[in-house]
Amino acid sequence: MSAPRWIRLAGRAGDVGGLPIVRALPHRERRTIGAWCFLDHAGPALLQGHGMDVPPHPHTGLQTFSWMIDGEVLHRDSLGHEQVLRPGQVNLMTAGRGIAHSEQSLGDRLHLAQLWIALPDEQRFCAPAFEHFPVLPVMDRGGFSLTLLVGELLGARSPVTVHSPLLGADLACAGAADSVLPLQAGFEHGLMVLEGALEVEADEQPAERLAPGSLLALEPGFQRLRLRADAPARALLLGGEPLAQTPLLWWNFVGRTGEEIAGFAQQWNSLSGDFADAAVPGYTSSSGGAERLLSPEVPALRTP
Q: Any bridge partners for residue 144, and if so which?
């Protein structure tokens, strides 16, 4: 049996609601890490003008997962929730059959990771929901402060509700650090440096130096990960069981077929079906822009 491999995936620079981002997933060479199907590294940034303002927009078939590192964001959704997300906290929104939400920055600094988790078939049409997690397990490991975002690691368990076997962890150090972490051999993994730089080893692979802007994707089979830093740094570690079927992701929807995605878009634009009650109470544009984002025309989509 050949040894497992890793590949370096270059992220794509972009902008979301006035906030600079690097999008690492989906990537043409690796669309998912387990059920993690979307990863934006947003900031760190000093915001100009009205800051980040993302008007109400829809989601289906996924969970949105927001991990705040610096700054504050106000979340509002069509269920009536209004929640400020602060550093060290997670907002988890389960879209299920359909939900809409808005996001607006508070203050002039912002740094966060925004991810989506594809829901399995049994849950993808569930009732929408929202949860806020102000406290997560934090551990010291070889000079790193490890915050367990999702799943289990080093005997700790995250309280965040997910529906697939997943791992998510934030690792930050204020100076020199050297730590070895166990990996689940049945998981595929991804490591993205958010600040500074890290030297990374997995099992017997030669060490790689990783800086912000790319994602290191590891095939299943790896059992340990060593991270070394000689200055302040921060990284995001993801993992999960490989999916039997890659979900179809377009705009803000996760589905299975192009016809299904087109149906979601039509319902959102006409505020019908599962989006008939999708108004987001309390939202007012801070920039004088649109009061909600309409879906673009759905192109011909090919199932992955």
A: 141
Dist CA 192 CA 41 (whole Å): 9
The SS3 assignment for 130 reads strand
- d(CA 132, CA 76) in angstroms, rounded, equals 12
> Is the pLDDT at 19 greater than 90, yes or no?
no
Q: Count helices and strands (H / E) in the chain.
A: 1, 24
Give the global pTM: 0.96
Are the C-beta atoms of 59 and 189 separated by less than 8 Å? no
CA 296, CA 277: separation in Å to the nearest integer?
20
C-alpha 237/C-alpha 154 separation (Å) is 14
Q: Is residue 149 a contact partner of residue 156, using CB atoms and an 8 Å limit?
A: no
Does the pLDDT of residue 282 top 80, yes or no?
A: yes
| Alpha-carbon gap, residue 198 to 192, rounded angstroms | 10
Residue 208 has pLDDT above 60, yes or no: yes
Both tokens of 303, joined, read 């199932």
Question: Which residues are CB-neighbours of 95 under 8 A, at least 6 positions away?
Answer: 58, 59, 60, 61, 62, 63, 64, 119, 128, 254
**Per-position DSSP letters for 70-106, written without gaps between them:** EEEEEEEETTS-EEEE-TT-EEEEE-TT-EEEEEEEE
